[in-house]
Write a structure and sequence with these properties.
Number of strands: 0
Oligomer: single chain
Distance between the termini: 62 Å
Largest sheet: none
Shape: elongated
Radius of gyration: 21 Å
Strand content: under 5%
Helix content: over 70%
Order of helices and strands: HHHHH
Length: 147
């Protein structure tokens, strides 16, 4: 039979393991901090690309922005939002997935030097960006608003 100090020591180890596994502290704060770090990195990558002014620049922009959004999605999917943000966060991720797809379409339109397709895809990207901004606010990560 275990003694009281042994039981308490075991309990302390379990408690430490649980705290280490979830990062300790408030899960909402951890979620927001982690999400903002991920989004900030992706937004910096996209901002650094500047504004494309030719088909060649649009091809490069679309591919590199698509990579940034893809990496962002991969990292954000690893997060567990607090219950009050689950639905809004899921909606935000769906919109990012659509942005990711549209960036691929933008690259294709630029590859084909199809200005009408570039404009159409660009318009859809603008709509998705506005939608993602609203969803980021609802998910408690307003600083994640895509640029």
């Amino acid at each position: 039979m275990a003694t009281a100090p042994t039981r308490l020591g075991g309990f302390a180890l379990v408690l430490l393991a649980l705290l280490a596994g979830c990062g300790g502290g408030n899960s909402r704060e951890n979620f927001v901090t982690d999400a903002l770090a991920i989004c900030g990195k992706a937004n910096e990558r996209v901002r650094a690309l500047g504004t494309p002014e030719s088909f060649t620049q649009t091809q490069l922009y679309a591919r590199q922005a698509k990579d940034a959004v893809g990496d962002e999605l991969d990292d954000l999917r690893d997060l567990t939002p607090p219950p009050e943000f689950e639905d809004a966060f899921a909606a935000y991720l769906q919109t990012l997935e659509r942005r990711h797809t549209q960036l691929g379409l933008l690259a294709g339109a630029a590859d084909n030097t199809d200005i009408n397709a570039v404009r159409e895809v660009g318009s859809e990207l603008s709509v998705l960006t506005a939608k993602a901004r609203t969803q980021a606010r609802r998910a408690g990560i307003e600083e994640c608003e895509p640029r």
